[in-house]
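hey m, so remember when u said the tokens were messed up on ur end? i reran from scratch. heres the input so u can diff it against urs
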Amino acid sequence: MTDCLFCKMVAGEIKPDVVYENDHVLAFRDIRPQAPTHVLIIPKIHIATLDELKPEDAALAGELLLSVPLIARQENLAEGYRTVINCRAHGGQEVYHVHIHLLGGRRLSWPPG
């Protein structure tokens, strides 16, 4: 998708601060961090919202989730962390490319807001 910010990152047109990458997943630091550690984890293919995942995306969805503890260990989040997936405008989604927020590095309160 040519106008998607995250697709431009995957294509190398925009250079994020990458913390993890494999054939299907890209993870990078959020430019507006909400915690000392704030990483976004995205699939390398464009899927706009969580609602658009299909059964054939199950392996990719699993790979996204399995990357979370790998990145959390790499980022020294042994004390704990939070993951968030926003879906659509009322859910707080700003970039319409599925992504997981990985937040940590401090005690996180509840409810988040």
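this time it looks ok to me. The longest strand covers residues 37-43. if urs says something different then somethings off w ur setup not the seq
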